[in-house]
Amino acid sequence: MSTDLGKRERYLPAGWYPDDAAEIRSLVSDWTKLQKDLSAFAIMAPHAGWYFSGDLAAKAVWALRDCDTVAILGGHLRRGDPILFAGEGCFDCTVREGANDLQILNALKSELKDAGIKEIAPDQDVDNSVEIMLPLAALRFPQAGLVWLRVPPDYKARELGSALARAASTCGKKLSVIASTDLTHYGPSYGFMPHGVGESAVDWVRDENDRGFIAAALSMDTDRVLAHARDRFSACSSGAVAAAISFSFNSGAKRGVLIGHKLSYDVHPDRSFVGYAAIAFVP
Questions:
Q1: Number of neighbouring beta carbons within 10 Å of residue 205
Q2: Does pLDDT of 109 surpass 60?
């Protein structure tokens, strides 16, 4: 573990996910006791606070194949932004410290450079989309290294996914990928409410807007994923999903499997609410 490069400390407070390792283990054990290992190359999982979507995120992570390294792909970026990476030597994952797999990261940078992508920079922001997955990945794979990346919703997402597959092959390591995104952010708190408020709005988000993005992801069509999120405001981190799909294709995945879908409204009814889905990309 490259401690000389420092440690990326936990930032999110306990309201996002527990700050006690025993509580994390207990919650995740309950959430995943009936979850099957789908041997997924990559998964899509929500990144809201665990009160709302921790169960779906855990089920998705537990669907992953065994691996040497887990790359967690977040977002909250705009088209044209650079790919962001964490360069610290390790991460505070609450349940353990996780080593940054610098071999994979450096190989990835080389692959991206060879593909003509120079827009990659250290991630100096505070962001929940990767951090909230750290304890799940660290618990599911207690010996695995980790890679922290955030991905813009543009062509670089596809290139990143295929570059990750090549980097893993070059390093001789088995890599699994987590794509972190929430779905439609609806209501006055988000300035997006084309169907007003009430049950009709909830139904539209659940059955049409979220479902459209889910269908695009299940079809493993990266262009459709990026376009649906851009045109319908149906996902906040679609670049991560497009990258995970590209990685999955290059690793041998043939299809997507829906693990679950729900809204924050199902947990806490409100005029403003968010959609969540878990998907596995499998052989």
A1: 25
A2: yes
How many Å apart are CA 134 and CA 10, to the nearest integer? 9
Instruction: Say if residues 235 and 243 touch (Cβ distance below 8 Å).
Output: no
CA distance 190 to 34: 35
Angle between helices 102-114 and 155-171 (to 10 degrees): 130
Measured distance between the N- and C-terminal CA atoms of the chain, rounded to whole angstroms:
32
Q: Return d(Cα 75, Cα 34) in angstroms, integer.
A: 29
Tokens encoding 56? 């779906």
Q: Report the domain count for the chain.
A: 1
Q: Which residues contact 240 (CB under 8 A, 6 or more apart)?
A: 44, 73, 74, 75, 129, 150, 151, 157, 179, 180, 181
Domain residue limits at 135: 3-282
Could you tell me the pTM of the whole model? 0.97
pLDDT tens digit sequence for 223-282: 999 999 999 999 999 999 999 999 999 999 999 999 999 999 999 999 999 999 999 999
Which CATH number characterizes residue 253's domain? 3.40.830.10
* Cα(198)–Cα(215) distance, integer angstroms: 25
CA 68 to chain centroid: 18
**What pLDDT, in 10s, does the model give residues 139-151?**
999 999 999 999 9
